[in-house]
Amino acid sequence: MKKHLLILSAFILGSSPLLAQKQDVEKKFSSEKAISQFTYLASDELKGRDPIRSEMKLAYTFIAQELEKAGAKPVPGGNGYYQNIPFNLSSPPTKGSVQMGSFSFSQGQNLLVLDGRSFSGNYEVVEVGFGSAEEFAGKDLKGKIAITNVGAPNKFSPNQLFSEGRAKAVRAKEAGAVALIERFNVPSVPWQLVSGFLNRPQMGMDQGETSNLPYLWVEDVKNQLTGTNLGNATVAVEGKVNTKIDGRNVLAWVEGTDPQLKNEFILLSAHYDHVGVGTPDATGDSIYNGARDNAVGTVAVLNAAQYFAKNPPKRSILFALWTAEEKGLLGSAYFANNPLIPLNQIVYNLNIDNAGYNDTSIITVIGLGRTSADYLINEAVAEFGLTAKADPSPEQGLYDRSDNVNFARKGIPAPSFTLGFTAFDDEINKYYHKAADEVESFDMNYAQLYWKSYILATQKIANWSQKPQWTAGDKYEEVSKKLYGGK
Ligand SMILES: [Zn+2]
User: Fold this and answer.
1) Structurally, how many domains does the chain consist of?
2) Residue 210: its pLDDT value, please?
3) Where does a domain end: 219, 239, 259?
4) What's the CA-to-centroid distance between 294 and ligand 1, angstroms?
């Protein structure tokens, strides 16, 4: 009797197309394999997956091999399963000083040498306002130093300060300048915080041997340096070391089955780097394993590749494991600016990045409520007994602080599928960017639900008859229309 009931209910359940999908994911998902990948990626052997350390090679080699074994194909235009990225590691000079009029600046105190090589001498200083293209136009800067304010009008967030600064360094170099000095005069960002963070090696793009222009910040919170009568500056920057780093994004793809929809790609992404080796904690552990941030996400993408290579959906899927997220979203930015698949063919990005979790009954989706495909994520996680919840602390701006933003800015709907958290509380801070973020303290039942519901959500979206859209009025809706031609 019982047995018959079981068979009957299995028949009824099995005939539901929704449950059939879930059962198929369940059946084909290898927990053992996923857990062993997770354990290896977060092991001490990989030394915290820091792109500036040699152990990073172990991480990207492993990821590429797993994608190959899964049966996902290398992306044309890549270096096998890799996209090579030329990074430059710029270390602070051993000594740095600038004298302008009665003002003196010294490295690490009120001066930060951010890029370029060692140089010294006495140079004329030319005022260039905020350093916009218009302000640089027509200025003779040959053999001179350009001085500007940091940022741009209404652009003073840390990210904007850096991106504006990089653009100005290019303009200054084109105008023949020997260096760019920016006056740091943003009241909302404390100089102490900035100098503490920046007076150490910084990773950025390698602009070539001679093209990284010396780029300096001087503290000028009282706006004393503004004016056209700055005269000359005497500069001495010594012992500046630049190291080339061979960065690698790891990429693969699976072709869709629908003759039309296969030209559209769903991008599944997670950064695989972490912060490396650092200050030891109370137990003496100095290896920052980054199990939550973001080995767990890397494993989700690897297992999605494993599943979809054997069970391709209608749309094609691009798998991407980004490097150097922790250095400033560098790997994903490089791909967004040098895409191996045209960006207007990437219709959706389901990214993963994680700090930790404090609620194993939910999946937190950063950006839930901003795209038309959200209900499919809700459905998928519900089938695994979980509930999808939106970002509990939008004021933290998490959406715009991880790799997904590099695609959102181009117009691609790009939420992040993260471990469940209801607040950035002690339970999160216990592990977030700490040596304690290890596999041993991870709830493996939850990990499996997380991985499987990610695959199911992807399957639903990749088979959906409609193309995901931004919610009307979203700040990225306009750029999205431009990218996809208003369709
Ligand atoms: Zn992360």
Assistant:
1) 2
2) 47
3) 239
4) 5
Q: What's phi and psi for 96, nearest 5 deg?
A: -155, 135
In the chain, the percentage of residues whose pLDDT exceeds 90 is 81
Q: Report how far ligand 1's centroid is from the alpha carbon of 151 (Å).
A: 26
Give distance in angstroms: CA of 51 to centre of ligand 1.
Answer: 14
pLDDT higher than 70, residue 486: no
- Centre of ligand 1 from the C-alpha of residue 299, in Å: 14
State the distance from the centre of ligand 1 to the C-alpha of 206, rounded, in angstroms. 23
- Mean pLDDT within 78-86: 98
CA of 270 relative to ligand 1 center, distance in Å: 8
pLDDT tens figures, 448-468: 999 999 999 999 999 999 999
Distance 150 CA to ligand 1 centre (A): 27
Ligand 1 center–CA 76 separation, angstroms = 27
Q: Give pLDDT, residue 14.
A: 45
CA of 485 to the centre of ligand 1 (A): 32
> Last residue of a domain, which of 217, 239, 261?
239
- Side chain identity, residue 70: A
Q: The domain that contains 70 carries what CATH number?
A: 3.40.630.10
What is the average per-residue pLDDT within 441-445? 98
**CA–CA gap between residue 470 and residue 457 (Å, rounded):** 17
Q: Is residue 273 part of a domain?
A: yes
Q: Are 128 and 147 in contact (CB under 8 A)?
A: yes
Separation CA 48–CA 227 (nearest Å): 47
Domain that holds residue 159: 93-239
Task: Indicate if 343 and 355 belong to the same structural domain.
Answer: yes
| Enclosing H/E stretch for 248 | strand 241-254
In a domain, 7, yes or no: no
Output DSSP code: residue 316.
E
